[in-house]
Specification:
The structure is a single chain. The chain is α+β, with helices and mostly antiparallel strands. The termini are far apart. The longest helix has 13 residues. The radius of gyration is 12 Å and the shape is globular. Strand 2 and strand 3 form a beta hairpin. It has one domain: Alpha-Beta Plaits, CATH 3.30.70.100. It is built from 2 helices and 5 strands. It has a 5-stranded mixed β-sheet, with helices on one face.
Length: 92
């Protein structure tokens, strides 16, 4: 199992990005995780799944939905990410 923790910057709030990420997680077969808006305008994602599922999921998150603009995707530390929610969840 692979785990990722990402910060996505750009035009990623108010464009359906979190719901796009949730659908991408389902389609890729991601086992668990969450996506949330941050107060700084970025979106944060944590996910766990097989190596292939995570690779497919991250590629989708880097592309984003129509209307989004991805300026930067940063890898964040995965330490401290305890049990991620199942199924993949959009946090408010």
């Amino acid at each position: 199992m692979a785990t990722v923790h990402l910060e996505v910057a750009g035009k990623v709030q108010g464009v359906g990005f979190r719901w796009f990420v949730r659908q991408a997680a389902i389609e890729a077969g991601v086992v668990a995780g969450w996506v949330r808006n941050r107060s700084d305008g970025h979106v944060e994602i944590a996910a766990t799944g097989s190596d292939g599922a995570i690779a497919e999921f991250v590629a989708a998150a880097r592309a984003g939905p129509p209307g989004a603009r991805i300026d930067h995707v940063a890898d964040l530390p995965t330490a401290g990410l305890d049990e991620l929610p199942r199924p993949f969840t959009v946090l408010r």
